[in-house]
Batch of 3 targets.
Target 1
Amino acid sequence: MLDIDEALRYLGASGADEALRQRMEGVAQDAEQRFVPRFIYRVSAVEHRPEGEWLSDLQLLLPGNSARKMLAECQRAAVLVCTLGLGFEQHMRLTQARDMSQAVLLDACGSALVEAGCDAAEKELAARFPGVYLTDRFSPGYGDLPLDLQPAICRITDSQRRLGVYVTESCLMTPQKSVTAIIGMADKPQRARIRGCAYCAMKDTCALRKGGHSCDD
Amino acid sequence: MTIDRQKLIFLDGAMGTMLQRKGLQPGENPELLNLTRPEWMRDIHAAYVEAGSNIVYANTFGANGRKLAGTGHTVEEVVSAAVRNGKAAVGDRALVAVDMGPLGELLEPMGTLTFEEAYDLFAEVVKAGAEAGADLAVIETMTDLYETKAALLAVKEQTSLPAFVTMTFDENGRTFTGCTVASMARTLEGLGADAIGLNCSLGPKQLLPILQELCSQTRLPVIAKPNAGLPDPVDGHYDLTPAEFAQAMKDAVAAGVSIIGGCCGTDPEYIRALHEAVKDMQPGQRSYVEQSFVCTPTNALALDGLHVIGERINPTGKKRFQQALLENDLDYIVDVAIQQVDAGAAILDVNVGYPGVDEVAMLPRVVKKLQAAVDLPLQLDSTNPAALEAGLRVYNGKAAVNSVNGEEKSMAAILPIVKKYGASVVALTLDEAGLPKTAEQRIAIAQRILDRAVSMGIPASDVWVDCLTLTVSAQQDQAVETLKAVQYVTDVMKLKTVLGVSNISFGLPNRMLMTQTFLIRAIQCGLSLPIVNPNQKEIMDAIAACRVLSGQDGECRAYVDRFAGEVAAKPVAAASSLTLDEAIIRGLRSDAAKLAKDALASETELQLVEGHLIPALDKVGIDYEQGKAFLPQLLGAAQAAQSVFEVIKTSLAEKGGEALKKHRVAIATVQGDIHDIGKNIVKTVMENYGYEMIDLGRDVPPETIVQAVQEQGIRLVGLSALMTTTLPAMEETVRQLKELSAPPCIMVGGAVVTEEYAARMGADAYARDARAAVEIARRLLGGN
């Protein structure tokens, strides 16, 4: 479930030796047993307006070029919040008091685990809307999508009551291992703009790729 | 107000759902509608009363100083308008509650809002509500027991209103912060709530098992105010009709719930249906189990067997501990706590009384620090009632107090505090007449304390009797008297007993044998809460064996685990070729400590630091820089070095010698930023290069950092920021520090900080990582 290579990357230890990798696997296994990522999402129609992408059912405006590009071919979009919850945060705190070395491994696993939770949410969404193609998920802070959308996203998903996810005045999310994301929903295949060509459904036929470019250039 | 548990009380349904229907815009502050749309409020309240509600909640859920900041309206203005709207709508047909929801910011230690700040915010709301004529106070939708306690204390201390408290639970039977049903119920009942229960979170079907558990954990009336089922993830609609909701709520009433209403997605139709469905029902019989109990939010400890109270957090006779207290070195106290947790303690006794230590300030600080790092219930141990009160006030959960005795003065000072904070208390069987000579005298004193406690409303199960261990070599006849008293208190008075056992063997050879034997005999007589040093293997071995014999250790599992592991582990101990340097490099903490102790026979403390510790850390540091070692290894070595430092500190404290001279470095995560792992990494590594790290925490205002620098003469400050949104706070901190007449050196770091940015904001250095921070400190401060 949780991607060990991704966790090692978060730790800045992609070149880890076998011993460190095994430690990471142990911590990951323990973390997965203790913590299940939880998520909520809401789906809205999208209107492509001059001032930005307007999620009309949620009354949320996504300004900027990044959202425009990501949602260009989408009729709908989902707003997602995923978190490991405060239990992880507490466990992290207790671990830090005991063993910082273990704590940094746990921290990296937490980041990978919340991403795995987002993957699970995407799967559920895909199952609920058969025949719909999803864009890569993107979050406030990606490209020019402003970070200060966080409070609005938390409000419209009622994330404080339903997941225990808050936003601080400086737009930080608590629990720290929480992610908000937008996922576009279209009726034709979508390019893997963020994850890259290797993940893209069009990788074999893409003209941009043949010319040595990518759609995120 | 005493509420009849046999009588049903109907609450209202959702406010938010109704406001949205009236036209509340997304992002609009719902509480301001009390001022701008009073007619909406009156309509909603009146509709609920007509549907059958006996109590309506005024629209004050988020009307606190934090959420109203910047609206141009005061708490007093909004809350009193809300209560007036309620009163105007319902007249004498129903009661109006002033309603308080979460503050929308996490409390320490998870967040940065302090307990005291939270209390003040709630106090402001509830006072305004009481003055405007509210009939009761409601605290609802809480997920953090600590925040709930702050709110409940504010109601109890600032008003005479009855308090209804409901929290939000997940299907796994815990709140988002991990609080258990038992911890919630017994903590809030102890603090004087008038009714407790659940609201929001789930629908009535999903909440039923949690409500059933709650009904067995409290004597108070139980409240259920669930959502209209579960929301559809896509569009947010709730899945139960009014009839289905009402039908499901019948089971809650049958389980003993007597105060009922609805939360998100419900409206007057739901309340009407509910009223119709259950109005002729009697709340079901409940089976409350009175039991001795202490807890943290996440660790509910029912005392139904043998549990160890760890005695090591106590400065008496421990030079290193005394030094830590005098130097405010709370990390040392946390280490002492962690050792006891690992050794099998179930409760930790906490005593910080020492000449030169302000116990009233220190005890709450230590309580907060310990609760952030270990998850065991605490027993606050002091003779100073003000210190006990300060400690109990900030304790999260249900604590114990050590102790009250049979003296009138002691009972008059201690028992009211125990009652107010709902704690358990150790009753020490001595009084004005001094130490009792016989079991009968001990029992009489115990009975006197118990009677007084019960007369004040403290449950008998919260009184734990200490029958006093005296030194057998000095007063041989007393051992038998103690044991007789333990037996009587257990069998006849049916109370828990506490006993500090190690005193018994004072002045004798082979003390351990005597202590262990006395412990086993006391356990046989019924001793349930021995106060011991859990780090002493023989003591914990004896307890493990006793638990098998009493059946507490089912299938001997813990006993087998304890000793099967031991046999296998022994031969490995022959790692004799390991050097101190290697032990540090490989991050072997206990080996490093052992080797350091041996090394002190032939080397001085300073030689140990300069000849082994620093070179070994440098070796790992260079590997780290070259990508041959990674962060966990760097930190592992740092922690092994820490264990060596601990040996050195203890050695110096024992000799009464001077501590190693160290440079002081202050470190903080800047204001607005709550991510502190980066800062903690730098702290761990630098500390073990011998720097004295003054950890100012996270979300630290520039002024606090400036003040620390001035007061403590700090020459180097490390600042961390993780988000672009908090970089301005870093810049501001640098600016203020540089304005000082003798500005300190400043190094900055964190995910979004770059070398260029560091230079532009006027910092002296950019620290890419923890290792770089050490190099900067060496360059700027010299030494180490």
Target 2
Amino acid sequence: MGGLSLTEKVMIGTALLGGMSGVVGSFAVLRGRSLVGDMLAHAALPGICLAFMLLQTKSLLGLSLGALASGLVAIAAVTLIVRWTRTKEDAAIGIVLSTFFGLGVVVLSVIQRSGGGGSKSGLDSYLFGDPGNMLTGDLVLLAIVGGLVLLMVVLLFKEFKIVCFDNEFAQSQGWPTLRLDLLMMASLAVVTIVGLPIVGVILMTAMIILPAATARFWTNRLHHMLWLAGAFGVAAGFLGTRVGQGLPAGAKIVLTAAAFFVVSLLFAPERGIVAQLLVEYRLRKRIAREHLLRALYELSETTLPNLEPLAVQSIRDYRHWRSLDHLLQEASERGEIVQSGDTVELTPLGLRRAAKLTKAHRLWEMYMVRHVGIAADHVDRGADDVEHLLPEALLIELEQKLASEGRLPHVIEDVPSSPHHLDTDASPRQGGG
Amino acid sequence: MSAVAFEIHDMTVAYQRRPVLWDIDFTVPEGNLVGIVGPNGAGKSTLIKAALGLVPLASGKVEIHGKSYDEQRHLVGYVPQRESVDWDFPVTVRDVVLMGTYGRLGWFRRPGKAEKEIANRCLEQVGMAAFAKRQIRQLSGGQQQRVFLARALAQDAQLYFLDEPFAGVDAATEAAIFELLQTLRSGGKTVLVVHHDLQTVRDYFDYVVLLNMRLVACGPVDSTFTTENLQQTYGGRLTILDEAAEAMRQRDV
């Protein structure tokens, strides 16, 4: 390993850090503990400075132990504040985080004033991060921590999963949820602390949260999310150290991770903003189409089974439309209506679809009003799935009720010229259609 | 008389020095569907959580088939309230159901083929087999509830605790849950259900526990679910009392 150049060491080291931050960060984010990493990072500063004053060395291990110690004190402080006062957890974290950080800055300036310039530069790297002076020993430490994290997650994947998803259920099965939670927190703490000299106290939290949050956009499976978060972290560490020569490395790594996040936020399938806008657009279009068909059915209802041309103006007056002309054009392209001059006529296909939609709509309306108790004018759900949501017996009851009011649309299964749909006038007594 | 499935002795539970359940003491015979009924804040959910060891007891003890919960954990299935988890968690429906088998699997072992078959069978039982590979976020409230039921079935227990399974579900799910309860009972299982709809108590349960921070009454529905007992349970809360009276009147005609 001694044969590696400094650049290579830096690249491998930051990639390792990114990978393990992504994995432990995933559990922290899913457990709603992302701020704990932030607190640990900030609270580490006074510990690092005090360890330096006591030990008079800049060895990563010594300073990390100091960081761990003050991190644990900070966690204890938050726990006590939440337990014994009415302060909420987020407020308590904010208080402890900034208090410890303030203390750290004060101690740091004391060291800088009393000590020589050489010792000062080493501690400064903890503020904003500086992977530039990575030693082989540091790399070994990172590799060991990374290996342990990976081993732990592989062994305890199922246990962590159940604790993160449903803590109480896990406890009822006898899992020691408190200890598993502590183990997740501890791994978060260790990764945060070994990452401090690389990306710095202020930016470390981004390394914990960003790869995990990015990965969440791309998958709905936990194990895929862990792999992806690790991969995003590795890529951020690797690329972040390469781009923009001469700029601070910690910031570059975090900005690379943030770039991944923004791209995912916009373009991820299903959860990305673009995909969601597309879904909404399609939904609006579907609703507009259903409104049109229903309006046409209701306007034709009095003359059924005969279909007569409807004046476009009467449709326009029937309800509020956003762009009726466009809707009509689309409907005639689908073969649901025939448009000639100022009149519109439903085709057999259009009538069938319109009757089906109207029936589903009225069943919903009836169900909502009779069985759920919602004011009638709030009922407007374009749900064809009414048949799947309600039990059959209830459906039949609703259909009979509609039929007795003469409002049950007859969904024609054959072509409308068939004598079938004359039944509507003959007898209003149909059951399940 | 059948064996005792579940027994609570002089149990008191307190949250931060304020007691929420006082001196609860009752037994439930095996093979019954038991409704736990009482007003909001009566400690219904707390009773279940205390029985499962999720909240510490200030005093008293809980026994499951004659032994402590710690020894009998494997005999118990649990359906928590639907709102208690994040339904955007990155798992599929089958992943959730598989969690029911984790207790049996023990440390480090992952669910294998046998467990997956169990999960599929349990999903079938609640009519959700077609949803096995869906992400849980895409489910409706009623479907979420059925997934939780399937998870409890996968625990393959003797005694089940259900916390408000009928809350906010569609009619089809309500019917499915009711059917499932019947199946469990005919299989000799005991089921305790936190329930808030007084109208359906007589239809769903054969045993009832009336609770309002203390035990008001416990016994077979016919002899225990009476107007006097309900008045004691809901005393002072007029609207609910009216509802109870209405429920009773409907039964009497």
Target 3
Amino acid sequence: MLRERGPEVALARELTPGQKRVTPASVVADLAILAWFVFSLFPLVWMVLLALKNDADQTSTYFRFSPTTANFGTVLSQRGQDLTSVDFGQAMLTSVLNCAGAVLVSLVVGIPAAYAAGRWKFKGSEDLMFQMLSFRFAPELMVIVPLFVIYNTLGVFDTKLGMVWVLQLVTMPLVVWILRSYFQDLSPELEQAALLDGYTRRRAFLTVALPLVRPGIAAAALLAFIFAWNNYLFPLILTDSAATTVTVAVTKYLGGGGQAYYNLTAAAALLGALPPLVLALTIQRYLVRGLSFGAVKA
Amino acid sequence: MSTTTLGTTAKSLVLESLHKRYESRGREPFHAVKGIDLHIEPGELVALLGPSGCGKTTTLRMIAGLETVTSGDIRIGDRSIPDLPPGKRDVGVGFESYALYPPLDVRGNLTYGLRARGVKDADTRVRAIAERLEMTDLLGLRPAGLSSGQKQRVALARALVRNPPVLLLDEPLSHLDAAQRQRVRRELKVLQREFGYTTIVVTHDQLEALSLADRLAVMDAGIIQQFGTADEIFDDPANRFVADFVGEPKINLAEGVVERTGVVRVGRDGALATASRAPAGTAVTVGVRPQDARVAVGEEPSVPGEVVVYEDLLEFGLATVRVEGLDASLVVQTPADVRWRRGDAVRLAAPPQRVYLFEPEGGARLR
């Protein structure tokens, strides 16, 4: 790792003096980037501020107020539950279970699928891959009504099993497409060497190919988890209370018909964003490589 | 000697009308290997030499079991292997990309295959092969930390450590620089002799093939064009492809007509004596190697021309001679002690048995 990084460090050192040169164009570019950052981060800043406001300040637009952290406590306490009829902590747990389940299913089925699609061209392999991607073309809204009917008929409405089932529609294509490119980057001669060494195809896959795509698996799993976590429409329509998720629970504070608690909504949203954020920070290193799709070097 | 742990009983390798045809829906079927017959003696080293796409690697992969055999048979000793999985065929393969397992160190790479077979004295064997290949200091390193020469050595050790009676090497020297290439070439040859493996080396590099192999199989378009010793192939090429592909500098090829049996017309005023019995009037392609062309003496049939370029390459010279009535110039390899000059008028001739005639279409040799 260190060795690989060596030349880049040297290169950066060489470039640094050059980058210090200030020209009118560079100033304009810097200002443009700054403006873009302010624009894109402002909603986030606003939300953080909102989450720290009292009930009295929640509809104000000034930045001057006495901050409080009580909202977070409210969301997680019995009072929050009384306001919305949703146990937010329970919803967090449900979300974690749903998403972990969907990611797990996607990995167990998706890794072998990605390997097969990356290694062999078989009849219809490209069509299959395209079809998998096409799950992501159509708006979820298009399939939600038939899904609702099916879920009610099969009795998986408002169950964790049902949520895992529908969320893996979101996560599976991601896992398969990312990992396929990882497997394609891997020299097939590695597994062939293992075959000649007397291993079976399965053992060659498990002991040679799989360990080498571990960064890809980490990245794909994380991305899939985030996508599943952020999904709103499926839990909104396909759950009621037992299997409801964070995304749905957050919106309850906007009060369907009753009073809207904007500060509590913001606090809940921030709490809801924590698990993916923590996950992303832990495996950030893999995430960048995962997004660059492949690039495993032996 | 550590031959007790490393020795093996060499076995013959026979390919019998071996075919490989790729057929996939909606695409032209591709006949990569069109009936190969090859009988390789126990302990012999044979080079499969040919341009890229000639089917040599496909042939190798069929022997290794990495490609299915469309039809035909492969036998190691008296065992037919096309239906066996790669691991049960008793072949060791050195891959072009080396294909070392990146997460394992060199020792791990070498023992990996032995573990799969449940070999008991794995450590002893690995130590013996590492000592023989003088790479004990590499055993603890990961492949990423090795030079390409060292990787090649480890890949070879991995193929050898299982003691396979048949060893297949795919372009073993292609990733090495010139100096390493020479050294590894010699090493390979010594090792192969010592261990006695029946070996096939696939290469597109004739120098590699000539230096390593006992016999060469020159392949093109899925067919073995000629199988023989280097001398046989160089001195008595079976057809125009072989004559053209083997030999450095390349053979001179020129259009000509047989004037009378034993003499062929080349260019406007030239003629060459040939050992071919082709009858008068036959249109032919004439082949003369630069090494065989020389200055004519006396009244023998000859080709007049003018030196347009002379390159002094120290050990020998190369003269490019323009001949009236020929599209291409002729190249002549001259001895080191003779210097030709640009503008010299020369009359060229060659020994009659070294003047090859080929059919203009197809390139079959006319003897």
